[in-house]
């Protein structure tokens, strides 16, 4: 091959390599584009429940639409895994981390990330280390769940009946939510018997099923289950159905506004009420956008939430979902 042909071939190969590099550099996730200089990391306690999966998917979609890079990780309620995930996100050049931490065990890792210029957005549990926190008054959420349950018990069972409460002691916020449930029921339906307050642990798939099977065997006169979250509630509904107790005098109440819970309310099952959060992924993305644009953002903002029952289910659930 002559020198002239070699130079021509080299030029063609160089052009191909540069084209491939440009195409690769412009690809980021589902239809998004990189090059914006923004990379968002989402740290979730679990990515197995509908609620958390929904946040992950919506935040990913919002990031793609803005041309931002995105990565998510679940720490499965293991604080060591959470710290490792945060460190990996920093190493992976995330400049915004949305952290749904369970407690303060990640504060040192989050602080180290801040010191490297990473903006920290917390949601759910608030710790001392954040640039922005989407606040939720967990005790207030608990009282709203309890209010829904009490209203139903008063109207359907004349203010009497027997229920169990499912809570979790994994962190103070969830303890507060569980306490709010109990306090509201005791205040608004004082003649209702809270037979047991059950710590069903963390968001583990299957815990709602096994716990409800046990409760139904233990209490033959049970009229309702009030849960701190939809994951356990949806499983409880199925267990109640299997036991032949899905009737007009049995009610399940919870929080998260997942599609499964909303469908249960819409379809007339014993799922009677849930608390619906405004799409958290979209809310997070909007605040990150404001930070990217250099706008002043309040350090703490409230997450909008609404009680959903049969009376207003049409406003929150569409059958074709």
TrEMBL record:
The keyword Signal applies. One of its GO terms (molecular function) is carbohydrate binding. Residues 40-295 form the Periplasmic binding protein domain. Residues 1-28 form the signal peptide. GO terms for cellular component: cell envelope. Keywords: Signal. It is found in: Cell envelope. Belongs to the bacterial solute-binding protein 2 family. This is Sugar ABC transporter substrate-binding protein. It comes from Wujia chipingensis.
